[in-house]
Amino acid sequence: MAPPLTRRLLLTAGAATAAATAIPIAAHANRGTFGRYGSPDDRLTPDTLYVDANGRGDHTTVQAAVNAAVPGATVVIAQGTYRELVQVPAAQTDLRFIGATNDPHDVVIVYDLAAGTLNPDGTTVGTAGSATVKLDAAGFTAHAITFANDWLRADHPGTSGTQAVACRVRGDRTAFYHCRFLGHQDTLYADSSAVTAAARQYYRRCHIEGDVDFIFGRGTAVFDRCEIHCVERDVTFTPKGMPWAPSTSREFEYGYLATGCRVTSAAGDAEYKLSRPWVPGSNTTAWPSLTIRDSWLGPGIDAAAPYTVMSSGYPWQDQRYAEYANIGPGAAIIDPTTRPRQLAEDEAAEHTTEAYLGDWTPQNEPDAPAPKTRDFTIWVAGDSTASTYAEWRSPRAGWGQALEVFTTRDVAVENRAWSGASSKSHTDKGVLDAIAAKIQPGDWLLISFGHNDSKIEDPNRGTDPYTTYQQYLRGYIDAARLHRANPVLVTSVERRRFKDGKPVETLGEYPEAMRALAEEEDVPLIDLQADSLGLWNRLGEEETKDYFLWIEAGHENYPDGIQDNTHFQAKGAIEVARLVAKAAARQQLMRGGLEGLHQNPDPDEITWPEEISEPPL
User: Fold this and answer.
1) Taken in order 402, 407, 410, 414, is the CA torsion positive or negative?
2) Closest CA to 140 of 80, 68, 73, 187
3) Which end of the chain is more exposed for a tag (fewer CB within 10 A), N or C?
4) Is 213 annotated as catalytic?
């Protein structure tokens, strides 16, 4: 196994994520150092300031811009790594940071202090003092920025205070869109200015990673469709850590809410807990609060005992912990006594973004469209009808395998469809994580499941159309959007089933559930079920045998012959891929990447590799 990336290497690794766009844009902004956000010669507003380490802005450091800004100002930060400490004092209200490229990997604010780091007078800086960025003002907003602390335990073996905060947040009405928070212990200090002052915070499609207590504090914070990532840690004991350590004041009605999040891990299975409550000595009446709902909890979470304690005097069972409708291996209820209260539907209505944030509505700010690029990759996530088959199984082929027949030379196809997969098993086995690790801004993710989701008798694959099926599909949508790629839902292709000479539907409620989700999430939909049903109707019952895997005895790969009414031979795979490509072209999806939609390609144009990895990681 390759060694884990260090924090410093991670600052430049990985794919990009999206930034929200309810931001003023200069009408004639140049596309130079500050992208579409203007320049010192063409400001968004008179109060906009520009930061560029190379001297092409108003300031070369972020802190210098903060010092010069008036309340309500916008600070546009050019691509670069800014190694500095930044503090936004309480008087600098309603300040906005914008990463000029809309890619948080490009704009990094980082420093390397830990709680045990010594001050010049011999005292230690403490946990709060270790923060790279300290946000004390109300109304702060950040778009597409990385906040990092790259202090590493291995570099300081004699230091006992290993808490190293990337960002400390204390101001009310603080929002982050498509930002990254990188650290190890105590990465994000989501706090408030006092034990009696609740600070509402909102994090949308952010990536937050660390090991021990890496989201902690007493703030009222909503984590909306965020990726919560547990890093690998070079220790022999477990748990290696936990994401959340809330210390909510007893006076606060709400603490932390994770909704629609994905909890992923680079460590081994069951090596992380979800949370432990923090009752600090400065506030021994704290009553920690955390609700996790509608989220995917990966195999890195110890489902058998997902919660633990920080102090024996404050057991997690006495705190305000709750869960609702979570999915994934880490969400399995093995022993109900080891998990907090599972909310009833009416109780869950009290744990929403709206309830936690009250009259403040940052969740209504729209996302930016993904970038349009000439060369991109089309990713396919699906089941055996789309998957790639090895040479020894030809002429069997999936439509994802045949899709490259209709793509231009500037476009690659990464087919991660997997035989036997459902939306659930494909996710739970780590294939979605593998896609998310490599997908790039401007790529396209085609999401097509349903055949195996309907196998409800199989607990590893079966899903319910309007609950868990849609929830797993949302995971693909959110993973794509987190990385500024374009999700597309594709209803499952129909089987070869005829009655009285007419093809019949066999997929139950799953296609309709996908259509409803596409409308709800505003995601493009390719209705392959309807289009394939139409194709089978035009071809008729006998001619469709030439498209499905109907092969007479004597074939070198099928000596006994085969009659398969679900899977395709090369001719059928090409025609189903054509349906997908034509539907995409009609909707102007993947523009510039498709060609030859009306030609008749030779089945030999399909590539059959020698071997296939299953699952396709």
Assistant:
1) negative
2) 73
3) N
4) yes
